[in-house]
Amino acid sequence: MRRTVLEDLVMAQISEVSGNAITDINHGTLLENDLGLDSLDAVEITMNLEKELGISIDDEDIAQMKSWRVGTLIDYLYKFVKD
User: Fold this and answer.
1) Which end of the chain is less packed: N or C, by CB atoms within 10 Å?
2) Could you tell me which CATH number the domain at 3-81 has?
């Protein structure tokens, strides 16, 4: 999968769950502090991404994810889907 496709997918999922416009989300955006996402939101995003990407995300990583930046999440997922 091309990185730009992954980025678009992640941004769309975050936008949908958070209610923020995609244009308000960038690589430096903090999921919890900037977008107000909580642990349940992180679980919802990861479940959607797991299904979409056909991967499994470690539960410990999901628990930490809400404190990550969007770019950190993209980097993490790219390890699973890069060509």
Assistant:
1) C
2) 1.10.1200.10
Integer Cα distance of 54 and 40 in angstroms: 21
Q: CA nearest 14: which of 41, 39, 51, 50?
A: 41
Q: Whole-prediction pTM value?
A: 0.92
Residue boundaries of the structural domains of the chain: 3-81
pLDDT attached to residue 63: 87
Question: What is the arithmetic mean of pLDDT over 29-47?
Answer: 94
Q: For residues 74 and 13, what is the distance between their CA atoms, to the nearest angstrom?
A: 12
As a whole-number percent, the residues of the chain with pLDDT over 70 amount to 99
